[in-house]
Amino acid sequence: MARILTITLNPALDLSVETPTLAVGEVNRTGNTRLEPAGKGINVARVLARLGHSVTVTGLMGEGNASSFERLFAAEGLQDSFVRVPGQNRINIKIAEAGGRVTDLNGPGFRIPEDALQRLEFRLAPLLPECDGVVIGGSLPEGFPPSGLAALVQQASRAGKPVWLDTSGEGLKAGIEAAPFAVKPNMDELSGLAGLPLTDMTAVEAAVARVHAGGVSHVVVSMGADGVLWSSPAGILRSRVPPVSLVSTVCAGDTLLAGMLHGVLGGQPDEAALTFATALSAECVQHIGVGNPEAPDFSSLLQRTRVQPWPGQNNTGEMPL
Length: 321
Ligand SMILES: Nc1ncnc2c1ncn2[C@@H]1O[C@H](COP(=O)(O)OP(=O)(O)O)[C@@H](O)[C@H]1O
Ligand SMILES: O=P(O)(O)OC[C@H]1O[C@](O)(COP(=O)(O)O)[C@@H](O)[C@@H]1O
Prior knowledge:
Elements: E1 3-8, E2 12-19, E3 33-38, H1 40-50, E4 54-62, H2 67-76, E5 79-80, E6 83-85, E7 90-97, E8 102-105, H3 116-127, E9 133-137, H4 146-158, E10 163-166, H5 169-177, E11 182-183, H6 187-194, H7 201-213, E12 218-222, E13 228-232, E14 235-240, H8 252-265, H9 270-284, H10 298-304, E15 306-309
Parallel strand pairs: 1-4, 1-9, 2-7, 4-5, 4-6, 9-10, 10-11, 11-12
Antiparallel strand pairs: 2-3, 7-8, 12-13, 13-14, 14-15
Helix pairs in contact: 1-8, 3-4, 4-5, 6-7, 8-9, 9-10
The chain binds adenosine-5'-diphosphate (ADP) and 1,6-di-O-phosphono-beta-D-fructofuranose.
């Protein structure tokens, strides 16, 4: 099993609310409601730990409401190496309507002290030699410069560790310039990078090629219900998800990323790695929270997930998604 270090710069408590339909501007009566420690690197870490890996979680953690995170880390067997900073971790609101539409309200996070990046780099120095791979996930808190994210990618790469990056906006642009091993944009993030709407697979492939041109070896594009496109030096693979009963897509991207690391660091053949990761992300959307590899229907989801080289015999790039 692998040793993985995940970095979350802007943790969040996810307040997930299920409601039949959201009536904006009115009183809504909700169903199932849950408050849970989250943030991209932390979510990825939870899935990897459930898959049997040894995971250390680091990044910046608001000390004002750190206790529920600390309880989660203890319960899930995650080694806590977060740098504490003054302030509260944000609360992100996720409203999941029946039918699967999700409205995300993601906060900006704490404002970081001036020495936060330096303290984090210092914290990473002894952790990096001890891991097999690094995940950097999520947005940047207030005052954290995109160049700081690039510096973290470079620090891990200099230590010889493959960096898997999942962020957005200016952080993603700056991170890509530092040439991480892999990135996992969703369609909105890839479209933001390309500066274009991505209306068909030709546009997706062109955007992916631009990311590779920056020195990124692996580009994993998560395309929601349209599955995943994984482009690597070995070629391009496309996965398709089985039909599922959709509850919430929150955490599906993080679950997919964890599944990819599980397969790639475990030395699985590419097709098997992508099938596993896609099926686990499909499992995730059936409920609130991260994907569960021990779910009773997971083996059936695995069997019904399809992976093919892209473009396949009957597919051309001009095809719609
Ligand atoms: N409606 C859905 N049905 C089945 N699987 C889904 C659905 N939505 C997302 N997924 C799976 O979860 C992955 C990540 O979801 P996506 O929404 O693309 O990422 P992100 O959460 O990062 O925005 C998808 O690539 C797909 O494998
Ligand atoms: O740091 P950001 O970009 O605001 O995203 C944080 C949010 O994304 C999540 O990690 C979920 O991400 P995915 O849906 O992409 O898997 C939430 O737990 C969290 O609230």
